[in-house]
């Protein structure tokens, strides 16, 4: 089996981080990993934002996060255990990841409110 690539802290770039976090599913994954006190398997993220994510797509998301330096993955048998590298990245780019994760949460909250308002107006206009 091929070894997993994890960039050294000094190889992690803002551009790489922003590219990896351009996908809302990846931001959600990172936010969950950052809030966790332990490693998680990929399978724990099969459901994101009320939708099912195919395993192959999820593997691709984790590869992008890993290659950007945002997560560290470790093989345990047939599973991959993933944990956030936010604490390390905070040393290199103070405040960057918390700002992105917070902005994502605000956006999600606003989108949920918009969906609820849309549902209320559809049911009320009938």
**Total number of domains:** 1
Computed Rg: 17 Å
What spatial form do the alpha-carbon principal axes imply? globular
Query: Please, what is the CATH homologous superfamily?
Result: Winged helix-like DNA-binding domain superfamily/Winged helix DNA-binding domain
Q: Class by helix and strand content?
A: alpha+beta
- At the fold tier of CATH, the topology name is Arc Repressor Mutant, subunit A
Span between N and C termini?
A: 59 Å
Mean pLDDT score: 89
What is the overall number of helices?
5
Number of strands: 5
Q: Strands of the biggest beta sheet: in what spatial order?
A: 1-5-4
CATH class: Mainly Alpha
Assembly annotation: single chain
Please give the largest β-sheet. Answer: 3 strands, antiparallel
Give the amount of beta strand, in percent. Answer: 5-15%
Fraction of residues in helix = 40-55%
Do you know the CATH architecture? Orthogonal Bundle
Indicate the low-confidence ranges by residue numbers: none
**What is the N-to-C succession of helices and strands?**
HHEEEHEEHH
């Amino acid at each position: 089996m091929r070894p997993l690539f994890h960039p050294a802290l000094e190889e992690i770039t803002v551009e790489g981080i922003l590219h990896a976090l351009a996908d809302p599913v990846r931001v959600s994954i990172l936010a969950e990993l950052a809030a966790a006190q332990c490693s998680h398997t990929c399978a724990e993220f099969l459901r994101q934002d009320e939708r099912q994510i195919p395993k192959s797509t999820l593997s691709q998301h984790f590869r992008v996060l890993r290659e950007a330096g945002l997560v560290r993955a470790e093989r345990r048998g047939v599973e991959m255990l993933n944990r956030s590298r936010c604490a390390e990245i905070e040393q290199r780019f103070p405040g960057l990841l918390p700002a992105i994760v917070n902005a994502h949460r605000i956006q999600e909250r606003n989108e949920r409110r918009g969906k609820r308002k849309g549902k209320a107006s559809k049911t009320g206009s009938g």
